[in-house]
């Protein structure tokens, strides 16, 4: 298989993961490849067990559990996840809201653990979701723990809005980052998902470099301004305890 074929196959695989269940035409538009190439990639990935077609017509495609099996073995994140879980459980019990643990992958974070609340109305993101740094509590906290050079490089790119409340102005985001550095936690009101407020803090290694973030997320109607200080302190202390344990 040529390098181009491998690249195309991974583009199709990642697009299916993001859009599933997804049909051929939609997938072709998403990846910008010829329909014949996308069709060939789909059939190959199906043959080796990574994708499965739906039984309904027109055919749509989903990931199989093989993708989950391989992805769950991502070695760099396992020690952090395993170390963090007891602290995340305690945070969830204390706040009764959804708790997220995210780790960096390129210029984004990836959700690697989620502890759900018992409340029927709750925040929800699938494991493996990719999270823009500027649009999320976990991401803004991660930026706040990063070097000025890294932040400047990130702010130099286009900051795509996720909702009407996403901070896309570099100056406003810089101000938000400085505030996080002062108080130790971020507050993101509906920047990633409409109707959802989250508070986050960064997890750092021994060199004080950010290696992940933890957040408390829930409906904005329930996570109101009067809870920000208590929840913010709780998530900051949790991140500090995870960092120390690591």
Automatic annotation (TrEMBL):
Domain of life: Bacteria
IclR-ED domain boundaries: 66-246
Molecular functions (GO terms): DNA binding; DNA-binding transcription factor activity
Statement: the UniProt record of this protein carries the keyword DNA-binding: yes
InterPro entries documented for this protein: GAF-like_dom_sf (IPR029016), HTH_MetabolicPath_Reg (IPR050707), Tscrpt_reg_IclR_C (IPR014757), Tscrpt_reg_IclR_N (IPR005471), WH-like_DNA-bd_sf (IPR036388), WH_DNA-bd_sf (IPR036390)
Record-linked SMART domains: HTH_ICLR
BP GO terms, sorted: negative regulation of DNA-templated transcription
Xref: PROSITE patterns: HTH_ICLR, ICLR_ED
Keywords in alphabetical order: DNA-binding, Transcription, Transcription regulation
Domain HTH iclR-type: 3-72
The keyword Secreted is assigned to this record: no
One Pfam family linked to the record: HTH_IclR
PANTHER family: HELIX-TURN-HELIX TRANSCRIPTIONAL REGULATOR, ICLR FAMILY, HTH-TYPE TRANSCRIPTIONAL REPRESSOR ALLR
Protein name (Swiss-Prot/TrEMBL): IclR family transcriptional regulator
């Amino acid at each position: 298989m040529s390098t181009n074929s491998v690249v195309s196959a991974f583009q199709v695989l990642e697009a299916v993961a993001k859009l599933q269940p997804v049909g051929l035409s939609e997938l072709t538009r998403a990846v910008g490849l010829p329909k014949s190439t996308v069709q060939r990639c789909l059939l190959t990935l199906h043959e080796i067990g990574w994708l499965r077609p739906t039984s309904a017509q027109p055919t749509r495609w989903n990931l199989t559990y093989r993708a989950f099996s391989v992805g769950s073995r991502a070695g760099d994140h396992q020690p952090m996840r395993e170390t963090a879980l007891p602290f995340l459980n305690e945070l969830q019990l204390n706040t009764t809201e959804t708790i997220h643990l995210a780790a960096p992958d390129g210029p984004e974070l990836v959700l690697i653990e989620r502890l759900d609340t018992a409340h029927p109305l709750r925040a929800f993101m699938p494991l493996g979701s990719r999270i823009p740094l500027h649009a999320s509590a976990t991401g803004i906290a991660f930026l706040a723990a990063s070097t000025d050079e890294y932040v400047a490089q990130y702010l130099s790119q286009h900051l795509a809005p996720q909702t009407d409340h996403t901070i896309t102005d570099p100056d406003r985001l810089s101000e938000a980052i400085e505030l996080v550095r002062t108080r130790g936690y971020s507050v993101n009101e509906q920047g990633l998902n409409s109707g959802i407020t989250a508070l986050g803090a960064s997890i750092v290694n021994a060199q004080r470099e950010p290696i992940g973030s933890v957040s408390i997320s829930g409906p904005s109607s329930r996570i109101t301004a009067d809870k920000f200080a208590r929840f913010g302190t709780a998530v900051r202390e949790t991140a500090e305890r995870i960092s120390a344990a690591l």
